[in-house]
Amino acid sequence: MAPGMSLYSVQAILILSADDGSRIFAKYYDQGIGGQASGAATTPANPYPDKAAQLRFEKGLLAKTAKQSGDILLFDGKVVLYKFESDVGIFVVGGPEENEILLYNVILAIRDSFHLLFKQSVDRRTIVENFDLVSLAIDEIVDSGIVMETDPSIILHRCSRAPTQDTVNLRGIDPFSEQGVNNLAQLGRTKLADWLRQGL
Questions:
Q1: What's the rounded Cα separation, in Å, for the pair 197 and 174?
Q2: Which of 107, 108, 133 is nearest to 118 (CA)?
Q3: What is the maximal distance between C-alpha atoms in the chain?
Q4: What is the pTM of this model?
Q5: Using CA atoms, how far apart are residues 45 and 4, in angstroms rounded to an integer?
Q6: 37 by DSSP, 3-state: which?
Q7: pLDDT in tens, 90-119
């Protein structure tokens, strides 16, 4: 590994309301064990150690991105990639020398995972109502600032809720009648299709 390179590539993941700039989800990562990235002894542990500094950064970031039309910008000495979905903004913050393509894959993984998880538009209400899935999906993508997974289908599989009914109700199926055999065959086709869709 070249000097100065580190696995700790994400400094923060933010989901902010595009309407009023309020925080919906925010996760700031310390850079490495002991608060410093391995190989980068001069990097501070967290440039935004308290909530007031974090909120100032978030307000400034939202004000800056409201005037931009791209997906990437350099703000406060950090590389920031962002996507707006309905009434929320999703932000991934990395160091000034971080690989933009890696951060772009992270933000795409977050956005696409949300679309697969919610099966509807990604908006403030949906994120708040499904905050547990949002937190779980982001933890599957980034762990302590290290990018772990960027494939939305794998993230969906890891974060999906268990089916509400795992057992099959066979009481209404009479195996000795023609209708019962047809019902049993239809049930088998349905279960097989479900298993194939889940990749089992």
A1: 28
A2: 133
A3: 77
A4: 0.72
A5: 15
A6: strand
A7: 999 998 888 899 999 999 999 999 999 888
